[in-house]
Automatic annotation (TrEMBL), chains A, B:
Alphabetized UniProt keyword annotations: Kinase, Transferase
InterPro entries, alphabetized: DGOK (IPR007729), DGOK_C (IPR042257), DGOK_N (IPR042258)
Protein name: 2-dehydro-3-deoxygalactonokinase
Any one Gene Ontology molecular-function term assigned to this protein's record: 2-dehydro-3-deoxygalactonokinase activity
Pfam families: DGOK
Coiled coil ranges: none
Keyword match Hydrolase: no
Biological processes, Gene Ontology terms: D-galactonate catabolic process
């Protein structure tokens, strides 16, 4: 008699049509999809690109999804992210912009596999070279989220923003990326909050993550966005000013709230600088499309609203899956 | 028969009138001065404020200068820097600007000593509170260098810049500091070069220190200063751009020079941002007074010249000593 776990596994294998994978620097996420592109299984691991040598990827992938596979035949695996980087599984060379987002799979590479249960396709990232109005830039992983946006809205034109450690801003025209810019905002925030003189003054990131629900924190955040928007050249002075404020400002609350308020201000300074750069030629009548997790998108929406912009939002995970679906369709 | 070392020690003790000390976060420097304020002895140690508890300062000071002291009587020790910080020997509370730089000793504090060979005076730092055109800020140690500037040029009026980990810009009017601003430039550079994604691309700071002698590095530095001066809001995008340039730019030199060129560019971006903020209301017809070591002052001069400013230079050590002299005179 089959156990319910065995029955579940058998059901997945019966339904499984292909597998979608987002292989990041620090983790790996896989989705099993049926013939209607519906998710029938999901699994994660912490084996990101930084933890793996090139010859370890196949093993880790099979460890994660092996139970889903049918007894015979080959299952396609569409992979986006750092597995296709130079230091990943196999380098999928960047496609230079302008690039149609429904043609990413044209740049896919297939690593040599030891087994034959899987057919693996690593999607390329995007690059941009220096020109009259552009500068060197790269992305890897985010192009698939942008493809997901285009899968939803095939002729999307406008500005898309993917907040994160290395935030990306992309200009899309009729489904192509024409140019893009990366802002070091998230990494800058983490370095300043954890390693600089400011570490004595701002709360830890995990404590700061939800601080915008507090009105004092919210005000500190939005006023910092406004200040930097008016005078971006004062960024590095406003950073030290946080420390001085911690030492001198009798009106700051005491205890944990103090660190949260200063963290909110630091966040507003870093994000405010990014927005001032990214939006400087943007008319305010067209909303900016944010793609990412809810907390970060809400933070960016608050900042963008503060300087006069409206936003739309697409969930980051939804976008990745939709992009991998689009790439899989283009391949087949 | 006296050895020459003993004779030398005896001579110092015979000449010694007072002692000047610059007690920083990471090191301690002491000068023995005669009745004409000429240096007759000098000694350093690596016991900065970060290495000492409050009750260890007297011991360390005596260890360093004990040999200079006469057999009897009390020798004044004028101390500037972090020994007067809250986490130092004894807190010498900040004097709020505007402050006359020839009156710093009015805020000096005297720690309780176990012995009676020394009379120690810890000089205060300066603070600034938030106002219409000012923001919270603090300095500790640099005020004494500014006092040294004023000792040289009693009615100095204009802008003084002290480059460093936490660069200070001070507005002086007739010998007083009326306002000042700290820029996190040096610390920002170090964090980005050593801890961020850029660490893979830029040379180590020690290698980068003298890179401006190379024409390609010089050009990378000055063009970065110009770029940020024109568009400071692009700072966090230009940071990531360094990494992308390392990956994509076929025209970059290979090997060690590559890292040096990118380090020069990073330096230009960070310093350029500071200058854009600090000089935004400054007419170009008045030179800016740089106080600091030669290498850093030359770097700042190159950057300032690039955006249209002239500079004068006062050596940092000369300034500290002159400031401690001025403070000692005011006390006596």
């Amino acid at each position: 008699m089959e156990s319910s776990a065995m029955r579940e596994t058998t059901e997945i294998a019966y339904q499984l049509a292909w597998i979608a994978v987002d292989w990041g620097s620090s983790n790996l996420r896989a989705w099993g999809l049926d013939q209607h592109d519906q998710v029938v299984a999901q699994a994660n691991s912490d084996k990101g690109m930084l933890s793996l040598k090139a010859d370890e990827y196949e093993t880790e992938l099979l460890r994660l999804v092996g139970d889903w596979l049918p007894a015979s035949g080959q299952t396609d695996v569409m992979v986006c992210g750092m597995a296709g980087a130079r230091q990943g599984w196999l380098e999928a060379a960047y496609l230079p912009v302008p690039t149609r987002l429904d043609q990413l799979s044209q740049g896919a590479v297939t690593p040599t596999l030891r087994g034959d249960q899987l057919g693996v396709y690593l999607l390329p990232g995007l690059s941009q070279t220096r020109g009259t109005a552009t500068h060197f830039d790269v992305m890897r992983g985010e192009e698939t989220q942008l493809a997901g946006l285009v899968a939803n809205t095939p002729d999307f034109s406008g500005l898309a923003c993917l907040p994160g450690t290395h935030a990306k801003w992309a200009t899309l025209e009729a489904g192509s990326v024409t140019q893009f810019t990366t802002y070091l905002t998230g990494e800058l925030y983490q370095l300043l909050a954890n390693q600089s003189v400011l570490k004595h003054s701002v709360s830890t990131p995990s404590a700061a993550r939800n601080n915008l629900n507090d009105p004092t924190c919210r005000e500190a955040f939005t006023s910092a966005v406004r200040e930097i928007n008016e005078a971006p050249e004062l960024f590095s002075s406003r950073l030290f000013g946080l420390r001085a404020q911690d030492l001198l400002d009798g009106r700051l609350p005491a205890g944990d709230t103090r660190g949260a308020v200063l963290a909110a201000r630091l966040s507003g300074l870093a994000i405010g600088l990014e927005l001032t750069g990214a939006c400087r030629k943007c008319p305010t009548d067209k909303p900016i499309m944010l793609i990412g997790n809810q907390a970060l998108s809400q933070r960016y929406t608050l900042a963008l609203n503060t300087i006069g912009y409206q936003t739309q939002h697409m969930d980051g995970d939804t976008a990745v899956l939709a992009g991998l679906r689009l790439a899989h369709h283009a391949l087949k």
